[in-house]
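Ticket 4471: requesting a sanity check on a complex prediction with phenylalanine. Repro inputs:
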Amino acid sequence: MANDPTAKTLADLDVADADAVLRLFDDVREQFAREAAAMPDMRRWEELRGVWLGRKSGVLTRITNNWLKPASPELKRVVGQALNDLKGHIESVLAGQQAQLEAAADQAALAREREDFSLPGVIRPLGSRHPLRQTFEEIERIFLSLGYTVVAGPEMETPYYNFEALNIPEHHPARDSMDTFYLATPPGAGARLLRTHTSPMQVRMMEKQQPPVRIIVPGKVYRRDNPDATHGFMFHQIEGLAVDIDITFCDFAGTVEYFVREFFGPKVKTRLRPSYFPFTEPSVEVDATCVFCGGSGCSVCKQSGWIELFGAGMVDPAVYGFVNYDAKRLSGFAFGLGVERLTQLKYNVNDLQLYFQNDVRFLRQFA
Ligand code: PHE
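Returned structure tokens:
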């Protein structure tokens, strides 16, 4: 307050009657109104309160000291009353402002802290089932619908289950065609190897269970091959085995044909081509009309119209001998589906390595 009148006494200001007192108080009130006019911020509000209500040298304290205390007895009551009014007025204005300032601060904090649901979220791309997994599930679905059971077996095998009991004695040339990973074993322990096919589970299941047997065995198999577009040191097979008292070659052929049509579609035709496996007799390769050209001939089927799908055959009676099954009474068939190969033919994938590189650009095509 420039030229602050509250620094002087009423006598100095030459105030002699009640009207003059009230005029003085009106001036002070106007002064306050000017200073408090614009809604202050918190810091300015604190200042304002200090200037007006401060205990030691606030305006009201000075009025008390300079006007009220030395006032003549006649004016004391008027000054006291006016001072109380002024004080009440200032306090209520400042309290109102404080409430507004606090509400505004709360609002600002809320606005800062509120979740903004309109912001785009973090988009996590949804994964998809691996194409090999999809083939597994499709094949399992087909055979489950035919009454087969899905079982799993060990990837670490003995030569007995992987070879001998499947009618592949030592020095049999079939052992060479499945170049085998042998595992390091302690001296005196029997040899262990990574199974080269899922066929050992034929033996394990027949050892465990009397006919009828209807199983499929999905799993990993291992061969010492250098990885390229058509080879890997690990790939997947699904073994199938059905043994009962009256299973015929017709059942075998019918099952194979049903499976191929379920998997590739009703237009595909099958044929059984003579082949050789030590544990099946007769043995066949199951061929299908080329899934790419429909049988008219293309580069994939090398113009033959046919493509090789998988090996299969009627279980060789010699295998029954290893599991104490009565070969005279029982018969059955087995097949070994290559999961990578079937997937490759179904989805036209021309490089086996793609399955194992986890490249999302490849994988997302199978979503
Ligand atoms: N185990 C054979 C292989 O891996 C496939 C097969 C299984 C053939 C069952 C006939 C019967 O090549």
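Notes from triage: The pocket of phenylalanine is lined by residues 197, 199, 277, 280, 311-313, 334-336 (CB under 6 Å). Leaving this open until the requester confirms.
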